Amino acid sequence: MFLEELEIENIKAKIRSIYGSREKKGYLYPYSHFISLTILKRAATLYELEKLLEKTPLKLPLRKLAKKNPQLPLLALDSLYYILLKNSLKVSRDSRKEILELINYESLIKLLYWILVIGKENLRNREILSILKSLYPKERALTISLESLATKLKLDYNKIINNLKLNKISEILLLAESNLIKRAKHKALFNAITAVYVYYYMLLCRNERRNLEKIIIGRELKLSPQVILSSLIYPP
């Protein structure tokens, strides 16, 4: 499922390119499982993309979602990823409990991202709430708020608000991602010969990949070393 996340990111990139300039080539990860990159690149409309996903676990009504809100197809793909990730766990009962706690924490980070992107006012939209169910317990869906999320993620609510005013969303997410790795490390140290340690290792691998991406993109954009370094997550 760590690899399937790459395929989902490719599909999201394709959706963005369909909404934007079709002549512009978007960056795609060199990975495919359900849909080859060659075929994915040929899809020119949401209908074509929806047909490609029809016989895969990533099947979604992309056009229906997009009509209600252009962001919904992307949100739905993120939500679906966490459903598939949880269903893919084939580990012992104790390890499953520990890993699920990490997955739930990570899904709350993704929920925080989408709240910051789509705005708090849209959290009363039934369509959006139904899609968010894998990122937040369904019975609590109506109580979603930035303040409650900050509490669950152990983040300073006032700092979140201040960063929002300064349009520094990435700084909020960086702190939350760093907290995830710290939590995983703590669990791994107490479960050194279980799947929990393997999960922690996979989180470190993913973090390294993302750091390398930031460095490459930062150099392409000719950002200063200080700006690039400040965007990286350093494992504890």
Number of strands: 0
> What is the general shape?
globular
- Averaging pLDDT over every residue, what do you get? 88
Beta-strand portion reads under 5%
The largest pleated sheet is described as: none
Distance between the termini: 24 Å
Helical coverage, percent range:
55-70%
Q: pLDDT under 50 segments (min length 5)?
A: none
Query: What is the quaternary state of this protein?
Result: single chain
Number of helices: 12
Describe this structure in words.
The chain is mostly helical and 236 residues long. The protein has a domain at 89-230. The protein is 66% helix and 0% strand. It has helices at residues 2-19, 37-42, 46-53, 62-68, 72-87, 93-118, 126-131, 146-152, 157-165, 169-189, 195-220, 225-230. It is globular, with a radius of gyration of 18 Å. The mean pLDDT is 88.
List the helices and strands and how they pair.
Elements: H1 2-19, H2 37-42, H3 46-53, H4 62-68, H5 72-87, H6 93-118, H7 126-131, H8 146-152, H9 157-165, H10 169-189, H11 195-220, H12 225-230
Spell out the key features of this protein.
single chain; mainly alpha
Report a brief summary of the structure.
This protein is mostly helical and 236 residues long. It has a domain at 89-230. The chain has helices spanning 2-19, 37-42, 46-53, 62-68, 72-87, 93-118, 126-131, 146-152, 157-165, 169-189, 195-220, 225-230.
